[in-house]
Amino acid sequence: MCQWMKNSFDLAGHETTLKREMMAGMISFFTIVYIIAVNATILAEAGIPIEAGIIATILTCVVGCWLMGFWANAPIILVPGMGINAMFTYTLVHSMGLTWQEALGVVVVSGVIVTIISFTKLAQVLLEAIPSSLKHAITVGLGLFLTLIGLEKGGLIVKGENSLLSLGDVSSPYVIGTILTVIIAIVLFMRNVPANFLISIVAGTVIAAALGVVNFSDVGGSALPLDSYLSLFGAVSFAKIGEFTFLVAVFSLTMVLLFENIGLINGHLGMINRPEKFKRSFQANGISILTSGLFGTSPTVSTVETAAGIAAGGRTGVTAITTGSLFLLSIFAIPFIKIIPGSAIAPILIIIGVLMLQSVKQIDFQDLSEGFPAFLVIVMIPFSYSIADGIAFGFIAYPLMKLALGKAKEVSAPLYVIAALFFLTYLTNVH
Description:
The chain is mainly alpha-helical and 431 residues long. Helix content is 66%, strand content 3%.
């Protein structure tokens, strides 16, 4: 079995080992496992029973990660996207008046469109239409976004009373646990200790327990009954497929999914210097989006937490398959997973943010027609708390800057179309 995996996933050609890949998969899992509870909670706001939403989220993560691992041989993790799930609940259902069954129908149709695009030359055309400066800016923006999530999860940054953000209570046991874990994590990482992120998570959990942050009384209970999920699986509705509202919802969701995932996949593959894996990775992503709707959840994205597994040494699909397998096992271990505190996960996200920030060196800020749109992407992703909005602002600004300087020919025709479509999503007020 081990030899088959080594040969099938070309571990030697990727200069990695089975142990390292599986360890990276574990790291990816622990940094993203929060999605199980969080995604189900957001889906519940749309009317989906929370128990069913938990199972739908787990199954979607399993299939998405396995698709990416076996088909694309890439260490990218596919899970329901934060921000996209909010769009599903608060835009498609609450604002546009679709039922959650119809919103799942929108997800399926968008998944079909993204999948068709991914299997044609249009996927490569879209990738090549994005200027290098914007590609690097997306990576930097994602790094800052991940850092912000880490700071927030670790309690170092909180919502301010007189400002948007302010420093958290650094004297609280929770924040002290975060700070101590950051110190351990960065030292282990700089010294290149094997399994440094996993050790940091375990150490962070132990520290949190010693400080009284971890509540072991949460451990217990049984696995979720699968019969609660039967009413959700395959419960898609296309009753309004010909109506304007449904079509606008499909257009808006497809736009966000296309360019958020193009940016994420390109950024992750850039971290491992394997751009040739883009086509199959994008295809796996498209199929995963389609299955998301059938399983009963919002669409998957190539989540930013993938960077944690890559930084831990993940280079092949074994990383993604390991993560997917752990998601499957998590059905029986949710109570145990839930005791891992945010103070143990936050330091990993912060360190990954630092690593992704290095791409800023590739952006030419001397040329503001390149630098300013890139700057908008970098700041708008974390400050708007939306990857899609950050990308949209940069994509709209880029051709406008070039036109203003008489450099219209430096912008590809597809980028003009993309910018116009992004602008249209704001005009229709459904983004």
